[in-house]
Amino acid sequence: MKRYIAAILAALICTVAICDTAAAQDKGRFSLGVRMAGYTRAKAFAMGIYGNYGLTRWLDIEPGIDIICKELSSVDIYCDLHVILELTAKSYIYPIVGVSVNQIGSKSRNSEGWSFAGALGAGFNYRINHRWTSSAQCKWLAQTAVNHRNPVVLSLGIEYKF
Could you list the residue range(s) of the whole structural domain that residue 37 is in? Predict the structure, then answer.
């Protein structure tokens, strides 16, 4: 766990050091997207839908839901906060801090039921044009339920800005 946190903090420090400006998101703009995700330690695949709302030019919020395709698992409902750090006019990265309520079960760990989780991670977005954006994310979920694994979620998505 300490290695994940140290790696995320190091990436954030390097990102802040190389970024000139942080103005990639439009305040008050909403986008809707779809995402494919892999939950590594849980050995699960998921498809999801999410929304993204620009609170300020540098801060946005992303609620979403992933439907998990695995026995004893059903859903991951989350809400993440992103701090936007612009790399170029078309690409930006962002650290992720969020919360999640999920049901990611495993027979081998005897884990069934729901769990609350905190999330830490980072993401990268590339603007295809003024309406479409592609995204890649990596985040770590710290589960509160005793027998639940703490998965790393790797995801790819595409969103449409209204």
Answer: 2-161
